[in-house]
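hey can u run this one w/ FO1 bound, need the C-alpha cells asap thx
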Amino acid sequence: MSRSIAVLCGGVGAARFLRALCSVVPAGEVTAIVNTGDDTDLHGLRICPDLDTVTYTLAGAIDPERGWGLVGETWDAMGALERYAEVIPNGSVAGGTWFGLGDRDLATHLYRTGRLAEGAGLTEVTAEIAAAWGVGVEVLPMSDGRHATMVNLADGGEVTFQDYFVRLRHSVPVAGVRFESDGSPATPRVLEALRDAEVVVIAPSNPFVSIAPIRALDGVDEILASRRASVVAVSPIVGGEALKGPAARMAVELGHSSDVSAVAALYAEVASALVIDPVDGHLADSVVAAGVRPVVVASVMSDPVVAARLAEATVAAAR
Ligand code: FO1
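ok here u go:
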C-alpha cells in the first residue's frame, strides 16, 4: 500500500484542508478528487469553480477573503458588460454579470474551454492548468462527463446549483437536491486513487452538494465502504454552523439536525472516523451512536498551525 492520501473535495473548505495537508506531507502524495456538479457554462465558457478554487488555493493565488477567484483580481470585463444591460432583449441571458468572473480568472476558463473544444478530456485539461500554476497535488475532476447538481426549492421550483448559491445567495429554503448526469462514470484514475490510497479523507465540504455528487457516481461508495476503516471525514459543521456556505441550513431543511451527529450519520456507511471540533466534544456520544469514531481536534482553519494539526490528526485517525 502506498503512503498516498486521496481527498474527496468540494471548494473552499476542501482547498484550505488540502493546503494544510501539503504543509505536513509532500504534495506528490496527495490526490484531490474534486466535485464538478457545480460546473456551469457562462458566456460560452466552461467554469469549474471547485477545481479552480482547489488549484488557486494550492498555488497560493486564491483571494483570501472571498475564498474563490484570484487575489488582486481586476473586474474590467464584467464592468464592460454592464454597457449591454441597456440593450439586452427580454429573454436573453447573454452578458450576465451575476456570476463574477475576474479578468485573470477568465483566462483559465478560456484555456479550459479551448482545450475541451479541441477534444481534450477534463482530467487532462485540469492537469495542464494545475501544472501551469505549479501545483504538485494531483487534481482530478470526479468525472470527465457532465454532472449538474440541481436544487429543488421549497417553493416548488428547481434551479442549477450556481443559481441557488450565487444568484439566490443560498438564502431560499431547499426541499431536495438532484444530480443530473450525462451518464459518464467516475474516471478510472479516480476509482484507482480511491482504491489504492493508504488513506481517504472526506474534506470539510458540504455533504449534500459537494461530497454527495462524487458519492453518487457508480462505484465510489462501494469502494469507500469496502475500505471504511481507512476513510476519515472532517466535519464541515462546527458548533451547529457551517465553516462556509449553507451546509447547516441545508441539513435542517433536508430533515437532519444541524450538528456533527448529522454529518456522522450521513457518512457512517463509508467512513469509520469523523473529526469534530472541541466545541462539539459534548456531542461525541451522538457520533458514536451513529457508528462513527469521533476524533476531537480544532477544525476551524484560522491559522496555519491549527490547520496543520488538523491535517496531521485527520491522517493519523485513518492510519
Ligand atoms: N461565488 C459567489 O458567491 N459569487 C460569485 O460571483 C462567484 C463567482 C465565481 C467565479 C469563479 C469561481 O471559481 C467561483 C466563483 N464563486 C462565486 C464561488 C462558487 O460559486 C462556489 O465556490 C462554489 O461553486 C461552491 O463550492
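Residues 10-12, 38, 47, 49-50, 52-53, 68-69, 99-101, 105, 162, 165-166 surround FO1 (CB under 6 Å). anyway lmk if its weird
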